[in-house]
Design brief:
The protein is an alpha+beta fold. About 50% of the residues lie in helices and about 15% in strands.
């Protein structure tokens, strides 16, 4: 059972491929290209190009075809970047497996498993590949995903070779990829991977990225559909009115196409997709993986953050620092050897722990007093924790056949098992309080012998003697107190949910800076109705002595009290609570696979500070998304106005399809790069959580964006008038107005980069903003200065006076937008 060596594993991986199933959601380059080619903007550009070809203007048609090609290229590039980002996230969220290579255990991505690998399987984990159980006891597996049978199937180790049999049946050694270990642990040999596994053969697929539509996706889809319908109606009306009233069908068609392109906010879905994917990547760099896109938008709305203690607020490095026996409390510093006076007691706790522990608490017992495996004792059976009994026991048989029982568990549970009461129980309770008040987790130890034939069905059947208490310390993470303070400043209530003794939980909560509040225990929860719990939970800061399955009641009670709940968890029994929470957060390091599958976010480092960092990032992403969407609405107003007004007033076309397409080439990159890269607002973690029902636009924000667009349109009209007063006419006037519009669009970007307005944004330049300004100015200069491009856009050479008018217009736009913002948005929106 030493497993393969690395060289052989690498050879088999290269020959047989990774342990993954085909992903039907993954898009290749051709699929992205086909999807983009169906976009309305691309269709409008092609239609405009065809019209110009029909009327004999191949140069104009070539410009529009070039813009169509560029539009497709940008969209395909964004789609390809998104796919690469999603692929990276799929790899990060790929399940992990414990494999034995060259006699050493290590954690690797399940995709790197190969046939012949020896893997460790344990309760709460999904089997990463088809395998044959070689070592293990009391192993039970939920195979319902393959067989439909709800009852778990028992597994028996086998040393024999042979092919995998069909799933189903008791006492077989076969484990199947994706099935859930519900009890026990063991070692198994991988028999088939990837598409060669049972789940691969029947066509099943596990998705690492959930593509369910988020609320924002539905909202932006409705906005685009409404705008598209309006654009279609206006476009058709312009064509009919211009053709019927003025007899100019050609001008009507060109004007209608220009207005349709100007009114269509096709950037919305593109921007949302880019923000969600890039946001997930940014959050991943903060050690948090996003499994559901909806979690990003919900992060900023969380009002309560329920966190466990061990490994999240604390370091999950348990050490035994004291022990109590026969009325004496013995303490020692971390790193010192266990005193001889209590070494036997601690050793008894090690006998009650798993022989090869994964749990840090059980590892602490083995570190403090290693079990002597050469004394002839072997484990006969194990009694695990149960819903009603927070204690476990192991039965060891010595060389003479005598059965020795070692028990450890919660003090109240062990006291009940030992039938200890009266003065003796009171003395133990006082010792428990003393250890817990020092922030230690307290476990009670008991011993016994069994000489009466068959073993009992439960621990209650043994005659046990109380041995003593052990205190385990798990130091607070250095980042925990600061992260809790950040939450409180952001209006997010922090609640600790732990299985620890109440006094221990209170001490750790005080160290972490949680505000004082009531403490409820698991027994309290059992005695409260759902209505009573929803009422009492408002003032609770710590839940102690809770069972994992009680987390679901806590989540639902908080939600009934009107809270938006984020909940952490790592075990199999945590999965319902993680699924029910508004934001489920699973532990990536110690979490069970089923917990990670149920969660929205996965913490790679299991650190509470990472949750707060993700919350900060989520608020930043949502803020920047609002800024981008506000800019899109604002910028389409002057473009649509300049396309519509000439037709309404009987003037020659001011914006042809080529002009609108040029502006769209600026808008798309601006939205997907400048706003996405904006740093967080200074008060991002000093605002209360936003209302989760709040959309991207309310009436005030929509009116503000429309007001910005109308202001820009007025400035461009003013520049047109000023240039005409200076003696310019025809194509020169069009050039002045167009240059003013391009510069004003940059002003709109600057104004929307910060909730504080353009002046606030200009004080914090970013590389993305500087790049977009440079590109926009270079493009505008090119179409104004290069004769060929100038002719294609129907511009005349601009005198310096015209350039001055355009620059003055841009400055006027900045000033007017700043005044408008002060009038309509006195404070940063929540």
């Amino acid at each position: 059972m030493n497993g393969l060596d690395e060289a052989e594993a690498a050879r088999r991986l290269a020959a047989e491929g990774p342990n993954v199933l085909p992903d039907p959601d993954r898009r290749d380059l051709w699929a992205i290209l086909l999807e983009v080619a169906r976009e309305p903007m691309f269709m409008l550009l092609l239609a405009s190009g065809v019209v110009y070809l029909v009327i004999g203007d191949p140069r104009e048609a070539a410009v529009l075809m070039a813009f169509a090609t560029l539009s497709v290229s940008i969209a395909v590039l964004q789609g390809y970047r998104s796919e690469r980002a999603l692929a990276a996230l799929r790899d990060l969220t790929s399940p992990q497996a414990t494999v034995v290579r060259g006699g050493e255990r290590r954690r690797i991505a399940s995709r790197d498993l190969v046939r012949g690998d020896v893997i460790a399987v344990a309760e709460g984990e999904r089997t990463p590949a088809d395998a044959i159980l070689r070592e293990g006891s009391d192993l039970e597996v939920d195979e319902s995903m393959l067989t439909g049978e709800s009852a778990p199937a028992g597994k028996t180790p086998s040393r024999g070779a042979g092919a995998m049999a069909a799933p189903g049946g008791e006492a077989t050694p076969f484990l199947y990829s994706g099935t859930l270990i519900v009890r026990g642990q063991g070692l198994a040999e991988v028999a088939a991977t990837g598409s060669r596994s049972e789940i691969g053969r029947i066509g099943g697929a596990l998705k690492s990225i959930d593509n369910r539509p988020a609320r924002l996706s539905l909202e932006t889809r409705r906005i685009v559909q409404a705008a598209g319908l309006a654009a279609l109606v206006v476009c058709g009306g312009v064509v009919l009115l211009t053709g019927l009233v003025r007899g100019s069908w050609l001008q009507g068609v060109l004007g209608g196409l220009s207005i349709g392109m100007a009114m269509l906010p096709e950037e919305f879905p593109l921007v949302l997709a880019v923000f969600m994917v890039m946001g997930a990547q940014r959050i991943a760099r903060a050690k948090v993986l996003t499994r559901h896109a909806a979690a990003i938008e919900t992060l900023g709305a969380a009002t309560v953050l329920c966190t466990d203690k061990t490994g999240t607020l604390t370091q999950n490095r348990m050490t035994i620092f004291c022990a109590w026996a026969d009325g004496d409390l013995t303490s020692w510093a971390a790193g010192e050897a266990t005193p001889m006076a209590v070494r036997a007691l601690v050793g008894l706790g090690a006998r009650a722990s798993a022989p090869h522990p994964f749990d840090p608490m059980e590892q602490a017992f083995h570190d403090a007093a290693p079990v002597d495996h050469d004394d002839g004792r072997v484990i006969e059976t194990t009694y695990g924790l149960t819903r009603g009994r927070m204690a476990m026991a192991q039965v060891w048989v010595d060389a003479d056949g005598v059965r020795h029982i070692a028990v450890k568990g919660a003090p109240e549970a062990v006291l009940a098992l030992c039938r200890l009461d009266g003065a003796a129980a009171d003395e133990v309770t006082r010792a428990v309080e003393a250890i817990a008040a020092r922030g230690g987790r307290v476990l009670a130890i008991a011993r016994g012998r069994h000489d009466d034939g068959d073993l009992p069905l439960a621990i209650d059947g043994f005659s046990l003697a109380f041995a003593g208490l052990v205190g385990l310390a798990d130091p607070l993470r250095s980042t925990a107190a600061g992260a809790v303070a950040d939450c409180l400043r952001a209006g997010v209530r922090v609640v600790m949910v732990t299985g620890d003794y109440p006094a221990t939980a209170r001490a750790i909560a005080a160290q972490a800076g949680l505000p004082e509040g009531a403490i409820l225990t698991g027994d309290d929860l059992r005695g409260l109705s759902d209505e009573a719990l929803a009422e009492r939970i408002r003032g609770v800061s710590v839940f102690a002595r809770t069972l994992p399955e009680q987390k679901l009641r806590i989540v639902t009670a908080l939600q009934a009290a009107g809270e938006v709940v984020a909940m952490t968890g790592d075990g199999v029994n945590d999965a319902p609570a993680l699924k029910a929470a508004d934001i489920g957060i699973a532990m990536g390091g110690r979490g069970a696979d089923v917990a990670r599958a149920a969660a929205d976010l996965v913490l790679l480092d299991d650190d509470f500070a990472s949750i707060v960092g993700a919350m900060r990032m989520g608020r930043r992403i949502y803020d920047n998304l609002r800024k981008a969407m506000g800019f899109i609405v604002a910028v389409h107003v002057p473009i649509a106005g300049l396309a519509l007004l000439p037709l309404a007033l009987g003037w020659p076309l001011f914006l042809a399809p080529a002009h609108v397409a040029f502006l769209e080439m600026i808008i798309d990159p601006v939205c997907s790069t400048v706003f996405e890269a904006e740093p967080a607002e200074a008060d991002v973690m000093r605002r209360p959580p936003r209302d989760p029902r709040e959309g991207l636009f309310d009436r005030r924000r929509l009116l503000t964006s429309v007001g910005q667009g109308l202001t820009t349109l007025a400035v461009v009209g003013g520049a047109y008038w000023a240039a005409s007063r200076l003696g310019m006419a025809g194509d020169a006037l069009r050039a002045v107005a167009f240059l003013t519009l391009v510069l004003s669009v940059i002003g709109l970007v600057a104004s929307n980069r910060s909730f504080g307005g353009a002046l606030s944004a200009l004080r914090r330049p970013t590389p993305a903003f500087a790049l977009i300004i440079g590109v926009a100015l270079a493009a505008a200069t090119g179409v104004m200065a290069v004769p060929l491009l100038r002719d294609l856009f129907h511009f005349a050479p601009l005198p310096w006076a015209g350039v001055g008018v355009a620059l003055a217009g841009a400055l006027a736009t900045l000033a007017a937008l700043d005044v408008l913002r002060r009038m309509t948005a006195p404070g940063a929106p929540r």
